[in-house]
Amino acid sequence: MKRLIVEVCVCPECVMMGAMDIIEAIESLKKLKTQLRLNTQVQVITKSCIGEPKHGDDSPVVVINGDRLVCANSQTVMEKIISLKAKDVKH
Asked: How much is the pTM?
């Protein structure tokens, strides 16, 4: 089973810009993984700050298996997770 590590910045700027919504979306994806045939373990790690402090214009920041997403939202994070899953299926 493939493993995805999703790090979500939870500094005040990222939380104000939607980091908690991203975490909720990932948690709901974990609950739906059987229906989506997602043979991937998704681990969510919260970090007090990812990257440079005061990264307001880049908030929220999410890192998925080392790939940094800035100005992330639930949709872009879900798309990235699904695309990584699709790459895994092709191999």
From this structure: 0.85
